[in-house]
Design brief:
Four Helix Bundle (Hemerythrin (Met), subunit A)
Length: about 220
């Protein structure tokens, strides 16, 4: 229960922090700090669930749902603020719907979960890409890094407007360019982690409509 409350709290916190990004330089820096807290809580809820011995299939799925909501809110907001390419949230949201549909069907039909002992992933490579702590950790850190960088771009761009300049404008422009490169690396990683779920998930999605021989099932 405590872990689920943290997940719900993250969602509420994101909704409260977004207006700060539309304020002045100082408010935007505060918003960046809170953004770091939001993603720290993402790791905290799972830790608490394991520590208290209350980890559950529902908790794992709810945690993923919370991640999706937080992630998509930031992506859409940054796009609306003009610091993120339109196609980034389109790719992320489309991938999320497809992957989560496969996971939902696997869970409802056979009790399979995205991670853990009952994972729906079949091969070693897909389990590594989608469920290993290494892959999830690298992906999680990349998201935090990108969302914080985008928040800093909003903050420092406002600072320049207010006459606050801690470094040359050329450094800022270089930082924007580097951030965009990192964003597209994150997009590619997002797809690399999503495709294996759809490959393994096809057995659950099309079981009623395609013969086993067509699906490649032995």
């Amino acid at each position: 229960m405590a872990a689920n409350i943290i997940t719900l709290g993250r969602i509420i916190l994101v909704l409260l922090v977004l207006p700060l990004f539309t304020g002045g330089y100082t408010l935007r820096l505060i918003a960046v700090a809170i953004t770091i807290l939001v993603f720290y809580l993402d790791s905290l809820d799972g830790y608490i669930a394991r520590k208290l011995g209350v980890a559950s299939d529902f908790g794992a799925l709810f945690d993923i749902t919370g991640d999706r909501i937080v992630e998509h809110i930031y992506l859409i907001f940054y796009t609306a603020m003009g610091v993120l390419n339109f196609w980034v949230p389109v790719i992320f949201i489309t991938r999320s719907f497809l992957v989560d549909t496969a996971r939902s069907v696997a869970y409802s039909r056979e009790g399979k979960t995205p991670f853990g002992d009952k994972t729906m992933m079949k091969s070693t490579i897909t389990r590594f890409l989608t469920a290993s702590r290494f892959s999830r950790g690298v992906y999680g850190v990349s998201k935090v890094f990108v969302f914080v960088l985008l928040g800093l771009i909003l903050a420092f761009s406002k600072g320049f407007q207010e006459g606050i300049q801690w470094f040359p404008r050329e450094w800022f422009d270089d930082g924007v360019l580097i951030t965009n490169v990192i964003i597209w690396i994150m997009v590619v990683f997002n797809l690399i982690r999503g495709i294996p779920v759809l490959v393994d998930g096809r057995f659950y999605l099309f079981d009623k409509y395609l013969p086993r021989s067509f699906k490649g099932d032995d």
